User: What shape does this take?
Amino acid sequence: MDREIDPKERRRTQLRRWVLTAGVVAALWLAASWGFGLIRPSLKRSMVRTAVVDQGAVDASLSATGVVVPETEQVVSSPVDARLLRVVRKAGSTVKAGDAIVELDVNASVLAVDKLSQDLALKANQRARSALALENTLSELAAQVEIKKLQLESARLEHVRNTQLFEAGLVSQEILRKSEVAEGQAGIELRRLEASQKNAQAATRAELDGLALETGKLQKDQAEARRVLGLATPRADRAGVVTWTPTEEGATIRKGDVIARLADLSAFRVDASVSDAYASRLSVGQPVQVRVDDRMLDGQISDVLPTVQNGVITVRVALKDRSNPALRQNLRVEVFIVTGHRDRALRVRKGTSTSGEGVQQVFVVRGDRADRVRVRFGIASFDFVEVVDGLAAGDEVIVSDMADYQHLTSLRLR
Assistant: This one.
C-alpha cells in the first residue's frame, strides 16, 4: 500500500535536482568559455605598446655611427734637421699658447746663423772696397778728362795762331797742317776719355747694384735662419691638448717630420661612417641630428670625403653647439642624416612593427580586439614613420613586435 511522501522530503529532493542542474549548466558554460578562448586567440593589452596616428612633421633620415673628434688639430713639424733632446709636454698634457712642446738640438742652426752673419760682414766689406776702388778709377778718369780738355784748348789756340801767321806769310803750310792735326787728335782723345768715364760710371753702378743684391740675399738668408732657429723649440700657437709626441729622446728628426699634434678641445665635430650605397643621397649642407647620451644635437654635413674604404664613406658633421659639455674626444655617437622632409603628414611612432618604408601588416586596436591591416609606410625618421595609405588620424596601432600573430586577421585584447 502506497504512502504519501512527506512534503519536506519532496522539497529536499527538488532542491537537490535544482542544484545539480545549476551545477551542470555552470560547468557547461565554463567549458564553453574556456574552449572558445582556445579557439579565438587573445592577448593582454598590458603586454603590447600602442601609438596613435596623428599629423605632423616627418624627416627621412639615414642612421650612421660617428666619432667625436676635435674640430681643429694642429700638426707641428720640425723646421730643421735636428736631434730630439727632450719632450717637454707629453701626450695628454694641456698646453697654453706659447708653451714649449719638445726641445731640439739647435747647434747646427746656431752655426748656420753665425756663418751667414760672417758672410754678410764679408760682403759688406767687399762692397765698401769695391766702391772705394771704383771711386778712385772715376776720379782718375775725371782728372784725365780735364787735362785733355786743357790740351784740346791749347791745340785749338795753337791752330788759330798758326792760321793767322800763315795768312800773313810767316809760317809754312806744313806747320799749319801739324797744328790742325794736333787739335783733331786732342779732340778725339777727349771724346774717348769721356766715353770711358761714362762706361766706368755705368760699370760702377752695375757692380755696386750686384753687391747690394748679394748683400740683400744674405740678409734674407740670415733672417730666415734666425726665424728657423726661433722655431727650433716648437711651441703651441693655441691652447689645447697634446695628442701625440715622439717618445724616443735622442732620435734624429728630419726637416718636415711631425714632432707633435695638438687638439683644440674647445670645439668638436663628428666624423660619421655611412654605407656607400647611400652615396647618391648625401650632399653638403644636409641637416644632421647627433644623439649624445640622451641629448640630440643639431648640425649639418660640412664635407663628404670622396674616398671609399671597405664600402664606407666618411662624412664630416659640423655641429651648431660645438662646445656642448656632453662632447668628448673619441666618443661614439649615433648620427641621423636627414634626407627628406614632410611638413604635415600622417605619422605614427616608430616601433618594431612600424619600422620603415614599404608595405607592412600592422594590428589596429578597435575596442576589445586588434585587426590586422595592410599599411603602406613612407619616409621614416628616428621617432616617426610616415603613413601613406591604410590608416587614418586617430587610429591606435600596436607598435610592439607582433610577428607571432601575423597569420591571424584578428585577435582579442584582454
